[in-house]
Amino acid sequence: MEIKTIDINVDVGEGIGNESLLMPHISSCNIACGGHAGTLEIMRDVTRLAKQNRVKIGAHPSFPDKENFGRVIMDMSCVALYASIKHQIRDLLSVLKPESARLHHIKPHGALYNLAATDVKTANVIIEVIKSLMLPVKLYVPYNSVIANLAIENDIKIVYEAFADRNYNNNLSLVSRQEQEALIHEKDDLFNHVFKMVSEQKVRTIQGRDIEILADTYCLHGDQPNVVNLIQDLRSDLELHHIKIF
pLDDT of 7-32, one tens digit each? Predict the structure, then answer.
């Protein structure tokens, strides 16, 4: 039987402190770089764990808003947002260099990620930051989003991402965290959700429809309760169905 491979990524460096438990089970990580969470010391510790476990390293910039964990849209000018995102990524790069570690990708966090999926102005700011870095980095983006299309137009390599532990609406937006059904907590529900996206390229929305979705990387949130056990079980169940994590 044909073996399919996918990437599993987790947001890390956010002060939870479970990275040493997560790293053996994932293939890429998104390191908070000071916007919503994270310090240079934490970035360094997480970078070393990622290297030890051969996990691809990504920058996880956000709106500069630790109070709301980067999950609320901030009213910022394009100039200010550009400066903040670039500063965050440069901070992580300053940590990676002495560790001889390479930046593999960039993935915006929280409200910034969701806004860039639909808002051209916000998406353009992120694209311009990436272009200014002049590094061969990839951009993790949602399928059929504004930022995905802009990245393609600007010759930035993209990786389509879907969320393993979040439910979707019919328009492929994530169910609001204010709603009870936003997060997927049970291991069987998590597996069925991911397996459908991998095997059928469709996601079952909370409205009960099957909507087309493409993804090569699947995200779990490092601050979700029981996330370590969820990832271990998900990986085992996927491998039983000939889906490998790379």
Answer: 999 999 999 999 999 999 999 999 99
pLDDT per position as a tens digit, 74-106: 999 999 999 999 999 999 999 999 999 999 999
Which residues, 6 or more positions from 50, have their beta carbon under 8 angstroms from its beta carbon? 23, 29, 31, 56, 57, 101
pLDDT tens figures, 100-139: 999 999 999 999 999 999 999 999 999 999 999 999 999 9
Q: Is 134 exposed, middle or buried (0-12, 13-18, 19+ CB in 10 A)?
A: exposed
How many CA atoms does the CB half-sphere of 81 hold within 13 Å? 23
Round to whole Å and give the CA distance between 38 and 190.
28
Cα–Cα distance measured from residue 132 to residue 188, given in angstroms and rounded to the nearest whole number: 43
